[in-house]
Each structure stands twice: as C-alpha cells, then as structure tokens.
Amino acid sequence: MSLEFVSLETIQFIANQYGYLAVFFGIALENAGIPIPGETVTLVGGFLAGSGELTYWYVLGCAIMGAVFGDSCGYLIGKYSGWPFMLKLGRIFRIEETKLMDVKNQFSKNAAKAVFFGRFITLLRIFAGPLAGIAQMSYWKFLLCNFAGATIWALTMVSLSFFVGQVVPLEKLVSWVAKFGIVALILVVAWILIPIWLESLKQKKHAQVFNTDD
Length: 214
What we know:
This protein is mainly alpha-helical. The chain is 81% helix and 0% strand. It has one domain. The longest helix has 44 residues, at 170-213.
C-alpha cells in the first residue's frame, strides 16, 4: 500500500541509503499493522537488484523475513489486545458485540486463506496478521500460512521489479501493482458483502411472508 505523502523518490532515496535494511523494515512495519508503503519499498529493492546496486537473493531473503516477522508481530498484537480494542470501537460506533463476534467467527473460517492470499490485497496485507490473532488462529498454522504466503509474495514482487523494472518505468510498475491490489480488495469486499446482502434480502422476504400469513 502506498501513501500519498510518501513519494516514490523518497522511498528510492531510503532504499539507496539503507539497502536491505530498508526492505526488511519496510515490509515488516507494514505487516505489523503500520500503514507504510512496504510493498513499494520491496519493489524498489527488486529494481535496485536488477540495476546491480543490490543482490537479488539478499533482497528476496529480506522481503520474506521482514514479511514473516512483521505479520507475526501483528498476530501477537491482535491476539493479546486486538479483541478488547475492537469491543471499545464497537461501543463508540454502537456496534453490538454479537455482530462483532459474527465477524470474528466469519474471519476464523477463512483465516488461513486470508493470511496466505492477503499479501496481494491492499489493506488486508496490513490487517491480516492482527485479525488472525483476534480470531485466535493457531500460531503454528498461522506461521505456516504466513511463511508460504510471504515466500510467494516476495518472489513475485522482487522478481517482477528485477526483470520487468528494466524495461518498464518503475513509477508505472508501482502503479500497476497498486491498482491490482485495489481491484483485488474490491473483489474480496464484494465476495464478503454480497452473500450478506442476499441473506438479508432473504430474511426480509421471509418476514414479509410470515406477516402476510398472520
């Protein structure tokens, strides 16, 4: 996820100055739940590897380790303090605890998929770890999905910028990846909300039929 107030030029400067540390901490902080452009930092790292300024395998390793470490921190935060925080937010916005529990249970059913595929989806990459912790997903199951997802995601991002970044402007590549993440987010939201909306319509129809019969 890229924030408007962090320019690509700034990210490139940081990556040039700190190299592998920038890649590791960039994605680690984002996956821990802090909305910084970790994905863009990783793309820049792959681009610098393609231009010979960094080593491909070191960038890939730092991206994987940063993603796993960051998500694990997010998981622990969610597990030990996430649910009380959600309840407080629920009281502020007048959301019943039973509805929050329904959301928690729904996420629990799809937690493994969310952790594995969430890295490619804007926002979900940031919140998948904390949400898995809130859902009390088994840590070892989480770690397995986390590592597998991190490896495939990092391999895709670093390789994409390493190879394609040499023939396509980095700005355009970053834009393409960001748009893909947004489209993926829209599809996921639709996948979640449409069944809920249809179920709500179904319940309303049943209620109308029941009232008519009376």
